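Fill in residues.
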């Protein structure tokens, strides 16, 4: 193509006014090849500038990354330092809180001990006042305190131990203490004591301890009493053994005697003419004895509780079972029945006294050293 292009140019008309080239070398060089060295030098410079710019950008990026890493590292170091400083500050704060809590507990203990000391001081002052008051009282005050103590013991004997006789004796002893004081102003107190003594003496005295010991003796005789047995008197009469007759006419009699001799070896037939309860097995006999013992123990408990109804019911039931199942001809059975009959007639009077009238007046006498009138007590 390069060879054809100059040929075309030769065929083109050449203007006459243009200057003609002097040599053929200048005429054969294309115009584009004349500017090639200038364009190649500018592109190299541009490439160098681009490379330099790229290197600067890389250096800038590297420097910025390094700076960012350094900033992050410094930030992490600052964070760790702040956390460690906070932890270091929290430890003394916790210690301070603990010390403050301990101080508060110590203050509370001190306040409690102080309150206890003040209470003890007040109790000591009150005790000293009481001692001074007792020292200033009349010597008869000790007699009044003893009388009040005797009345309290009388109440325990009457309501807890059900012993009206001892309670009446204690009330009389309290009245003797009041009479020994020789104070005319204590006549209402002696009148109240006299009324209490009369009410207690009206209660019929019952020997509870003696009755309980009697029941214990009856319980000990239960295993000695025999049950009902079928005696020889209750058996049907038995004919004497008679020889059989040799007569043929007595064949019926001889056959009856033979049959009777055979059955006597295997069976025993008894005829009972009286109404007797059938015999008990050993197990039933043990249950019977235990039931009777239980009823007698219930009677003892009713005595302690001063319950007349339960006492009579228990004695009646025990007596009924003994009469029904035991041998009434035996001496032990007769003794037990006689003792139960005597115990069944025992009467227990209810204790209607709820409190002693002299108790309140004795308390006034012990506390204030005198009896307070009703009008002054109401105020």
């Amino acid at each position: 193509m390069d060879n054809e292009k100059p040929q075309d140019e030769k065929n083109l008309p050449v203007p006459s006014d243009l200057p003609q080239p002097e040599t053929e070398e200048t005429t054969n060089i294309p115009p584009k090849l004349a500017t090639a060295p200038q364009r190649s030098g500018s592109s190299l410079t541009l490439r160098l500038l681009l490379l330099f710019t790229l290197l600067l950008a890389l250096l800038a990026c590297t420097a910025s990354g390094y700076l960012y890493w350094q900033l992050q590292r410094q930030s992490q170091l600052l964070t760790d330092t702040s956390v460690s400083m906070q932890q270091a500050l929290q430890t003394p704060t916790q210690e301070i809180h603990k010390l403050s809590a301990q101080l508060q507990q110590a203050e509370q203990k001190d306040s409690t001990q102080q309150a206890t000391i003040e209470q003890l001081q007040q109790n000591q002052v009150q005790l000293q006042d009481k001692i001074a008051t007792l020292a200033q009282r009349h010597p008869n005050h000790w007699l009044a305190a003893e009388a009040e103590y005797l009345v309290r013991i009388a109440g325990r004997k009457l309501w807890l131990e059900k012993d009206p006789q001892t309670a009446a004796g204690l009330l009389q002893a309290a009245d003797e203490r009041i009479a020994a004081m020789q104070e005319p102003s204590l006549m209402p107190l002696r009148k109240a004591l006299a009324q209490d003594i009369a009410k207690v003496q009206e209660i019929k005295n019952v020997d509870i301890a003696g009755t309980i010991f009697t029941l214990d003796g009856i319980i000990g005789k239960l295993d000695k009493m025999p049950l009902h047995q079928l005696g020889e008197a209750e058996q049907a009469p038995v004919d004497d053994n008679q020889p059989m007759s040799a007569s043929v006419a007595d064949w019926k009699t001889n056959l009856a005697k033979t049959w009777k001799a055979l059955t006597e070896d295997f069976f025993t037939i008894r005829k009972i003419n009286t109404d007797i309860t059938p015999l008990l097995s050993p197990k039933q006999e043990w249950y019977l004895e235990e039931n009777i013992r239980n009823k007698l123990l219930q009677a003892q408990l009713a005595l302690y509780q001063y319950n007349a109804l339960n006492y009579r019911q228990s004695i009646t039931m025990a007596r009924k079972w003994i009469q029904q199942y035991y041998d009434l001809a035996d001496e032990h059975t007769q003794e037990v029945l006689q003792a139960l009959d005597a115990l069944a007639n025992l009467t227990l009077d209810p204790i209607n006294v709820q409190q002693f009238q002299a108790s309140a007046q004795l308390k006034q006498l012990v506390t204030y050293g005198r009896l307070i009138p009703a009008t002054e007590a109401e105020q």
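The CA atoms of residues 22 and 28 lie 11 Å apart.
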